Amino acid sequence: MSAVLVAYCLLFVPGATAAVEVNATVGQSVVLPCALVTAAPVDLKKLRFYWQDEGNYVLYSFNEGKERPEHVNELYRGRIAAFPEHMSGGNVSVKVKNVTLGDNQKLFQVFAAVFDSGGTRRYSLKHMEICQIAVHVAVPFKSVRLAVNDATRAAACTAHTGFPKPLVKWRLQHLFNNSLHLLDQGGVHTTTVQDPKDQLYSFSSTINIPGGRYESVTCVVDNPTLNVTVTATHVLNTGEAQRSPPGWAVGLMVAAVVLRA
Ligand SMILES: *[C@@H]1O[C@H](CO)[C@@H](O)[C@H](O)[C@H]1NC(C)=O
Ligand SMILES: *[C@@H]1O[C@H](CO)[C@@H](O)[C@H](O)[C@H]1NC(C)=O
Ligand SMILES: *[C@@H]1O[C@H](CO)[C@@H](O)[C@H](O)[C@H]1NC(C)=O
Ligand SMILES: *[C@@H]1O[C@H](CO)[C@@H](O)[C@H](O)[C@H]1NC(C)=O
Ligand SMILES: *[C@@H]1O[C@H](CO)[C@@H](O)[C@H](O)[C@H]1NC(C)=O
Would you say the CB of residue 68 lies under 6 angstroms from ligand 3? Predict the structure, then answer.
């Protein structure tokens, strides 16, 4: 009865749903989530599932109670672990260790089957696709350098070895009311280069700080994949005596990683 129910429920797991997106950082680990919808705990001896990428290379294979490392492609060997302690609850997620840029933009699929009880070779869950995971990989820009010439009011912001291509913006802070002003992209000149060997980006972005009294200039670098922003701020020397705002420091160069929580 319960096996019939399980099979019935599973018929409503659409095979071609939109992929779940998972974003990861190079060198770190990431869990690719996938759950088998079951009404009752799965007997691992009756479970078969495998993960493969869009080129049909196998990441992980499990059949009738055992891992099958011999089916795993060398691209993934030694890097993938499942969670056997959670499998009977239908959790067939895997963890990818040491994520590389080679994993970027891959589409992973999970196929699963559950054999009928009673030792027959029939399935209670027919072999079918149960999950699709799209992976985006990023390398954060570690330090953003900002150089400002207070006399010419030219500012240059640079950073190296990040991925993907960054979005660079500039922010100015008004001296008297502290309000922030995002510089129009028309006044921003950004050159980005990608290293053909490691695929990493470097950029240089320059502006001329417009007239008006500004207290500070900030270069804002967004990583669209990690949803992380790195900034560098320079406090402008306006060449006249001023009241000292909190945190004042002449010529200060700050690089701060702001995780938008
Ligand atoms: C499966 O187990 C892993 C490891 O404990 C956990 O990170 C993940 O959230 C679980 N996934 C589901 C769908 O329960
Ligand atoms: C992670 O992968 C990189 C590139 O393939 C390799 O150089 C490095 O040794 C790996 N690190 C670990 C801990 O496996
Ligand atoms: C702050 O001052 C600048 C320059 O006087 C002005 O353009 C801007 O609108 C002011 N912002 C606010 C929020 O008052
Ligand atoms: C994951 O990365 C993709 C590609 O850069 C991006 O479009 C998406 O917004 C990111 N998702 C999150 C949750 O940051
Ligand atoms: C990025 O982070 C901000 C701040 O937490 C959040 O509001 C936004 O939804 C996130 N973007 C994505 C694509 O997840």
Answer: no
Question: Which atom of ligand 4 is found nearest the CA of 136?
Answer: 2
Distance 125 CA to ligand 4 centre (A): 33
Contact 85, 41 (CB under 8 A): no
Give, using CA atoms, the residue closest to atom 12 of ligand 2: 98
> Does the C-beta of 191 come closer than 6 Å to ligand 5?
no
Taking only the tens place, the pLDDT of each residue in 81-133 is 999 999 999 999 999 999 999 999 999 999 999 887 766 666 666 778 999 99
pTM above 0.90, yes or no: no
Q: What span, in angstroms and rounded, lies between the C-alpha atoms of 2 and 43? A: 13
